[in-house]
Amino acid sequence: MMKSCFFLAADAKYFPYACLAARRILDVSRQVTPGFIMHIGASESDIAVAGRLLDDRIRIVDVTAFMAGSGYRFRPGSAATFIRLFADLFPEFAAYDRIAHIDCDVLFNRDIAGLVDQPIHAPLLAAHDDYMYFRPGYRKDMSMQPGAPYFNAGIIVFNMPPVREQDLLKQARKLAVDGQMNDQNALNVVFERKWQTMHPNWNLQSLGTREFRFSQAWARHFAGGKPWGNQVGVELEALSVWRDLAKGTPWGKPFEQRVPFERGVMKRFLRRFDAVAGLFGRDVHRRRARYDGDKMHRIYAKHADDGAMAVQFPEVLGGFG
To answer: Which CATH number is 4-204+293-317 given?
Structure first.
């Protein structure tokens, strides 16, 4: 019988946000899918709050010593972002066939079992990151094949038998060190031609979108403005959910509404004039102006329903290749 789990990873600063995101997963899930928070250096007081918030239904694992003793030294920045590259080595995950990694800036609206328990025939399940296709030079920069698609690693599902058999995460760790590459880029290089298209509703990003909103998402990824940061692009409905999650904890202040309207509305409005900006040499704007988000959502959704591998040259399908 296939066994599935999910995990979030955080350093001390992001640990509260990981706990709130995990609480949301518990609230909207009917089935019991084991969950973990792998952390580096969270305080004892925050861990105590987490225990109460999560009713001990999420296992909290301190991986500080593990990461320090791993033998790897990654590029400067939060070591917690590289925790996902060790999913094949943590003993807590040894018994699982499917492992979903979830970023801390994600709110689920649907049972996570629907994500981790779907049929997967590739080493990885992921959603296309359309925003990278506005800057297709990434393929040359990362030594990827012409037309190689790109995924966002904020919500991914590892199909662990082939991942372990092919040592894919070991390759990603080595590339991140030797190539001084961030973890998402390293995963994209190593998993090139090895990932299956995830339904876009499972990673509906807030970055640069105007077509799809929080209520439509199965999982909303606040890849642009953070709910605890500048709040740009964070729907008021979603911000209210974050505040409710933080009630009764010492973590609520960052989620206070800064302005009496949604921040980022003007930014989304200005995106309607990308075609004009493109006339003045901004290639990103030209591509974005020609991009049909509704059309690509339907295409990716069909690919996901069909269990299709990630498509090559996705920008051609998007109408701006």
So the answer is: 3.90.550.10
